[in-house]
Design brief:
This protein is mainly alpha-helical. It contains two helices and no strands. The protein is elongated.
Length: 72
């Protein structure tokens, strides 16, 4: 895995995690450190997975575009 993917997912996580934490606090009314850590880890793994998925999808779309322009 490239370090770029990790850094990109950290960037997205930096924007998303405070929103998730605020939402969780508003819904439950309380938050303790262990829940905060679990939420952080799960949220980061979701961000990393979605980043990897989007990169792979972009590569596949690029390959399809190259194939379609070769036939023309």
């Amino acid at each position: 895995m490239k370090i770029t993917y990790i850094l990109l997912s950290l960037l997205f996580w930096g924007f998303d995690y405070p929103i998730s934490l605020f939402t969780f606090r508003e819904v439950t009314g309380q938050i303790n450190p262990s829940i905060s850590v679990v939420l952080a880890v799960v949220d980061y793994l979701v961000e990393l997975g979605s980043t990897l998925f989007l990169v792979r999808l972009g590569k596949e779309i690029g390959i399809l575009i190259k194939r379609s322009t070769k036939k023309l």
